Amino acid sequence: MTRTDQPSGTSTALPEPTENDLATRFAVAIGRINRRIRPTHDGISHGLVSALGSIVRVGEIRPGDLARLESVAAPTMTRLVADLEARGLVTRRPDPNDGRSFFVVATPAGVDAIRRARFERAERVAALLETLPPEQLAAVKAAIDGLEAASQAAISR
């Protein structure tokens, strides 16, 4: 069976995902886990945590470069940076080579917020993993290297 209910009047038919489709099952599982482990108590959304985490990891970065790294549109990143700045988690630093541009840099509060958010998420994941029988937990552990490689491949595209 194919789907033909495409937006914008396109006529390209997409195959229906099957229950045994690895990519479909994986996407559903990731989505469910993600919903169960967010947001943090201080109200930092997943998008803010992701952007702030990238800023902490990379160091100073231009908003446009951050938007590309996070795979979001420039206006979205502008809003995220403004929100992070309003919360005191990042600051702007002028670009010495281009007066029209600036770098975004994490503040000490931003670094602390990322550490706290990662710790809280890890605690929630640990609680989910504790519910698994030993053989399924072993399978998850065995899959970590491949999952990390897949996540890095997505970043380098």
Describe this structure as you would to a colleague.
This protein has 157 residues and is of the alpha+beta class. The protein has six helices and four strands. Helix 3 (63-70) crosses helix 4. It is globular. The two termini are 31 Å apart.
Features:
157 residues, alpha+beta, two-stranded antiparallel ribbon, two-stranded antiparallel sheet, 12% strand, globular, MarR family transcriptional regulator, transcription, HTH_MarR-typ, transcription regulation
Provide a short characterization of the protein structure.
The protein has helices spanning 22-37, 46-58, 63-70, 74-86, 108-129, 134-155, and strands at 2-3, 14-15, 90-95, 98-106.
Q: Measured on Cα atoms, how large is the radius of gyration? A: 19 Å
Question: Low-confidence parts, pLDDT < 50 over ≥5 residues?
Answer: none
* Number of strand segments: 4
| Topology pattern, helix = H, strand = E | EEHHHHEEHH
In whole angstroms, the N-to-C terminal distance is 31 Å
Helix fraction, binned, reads: 55-70%
Strand content: 5-15%
Largest sheet: 2 strands, antiparallel
Q: Mean of the pLDDT scores?
A: 86
Number of helical elements: 6
Query: Structural class of the helix and strand makeup?
Result: alpha+beta
Q: Strand order of the main beta sheet, please?
A: 1-2
Inertia-based shape: globular
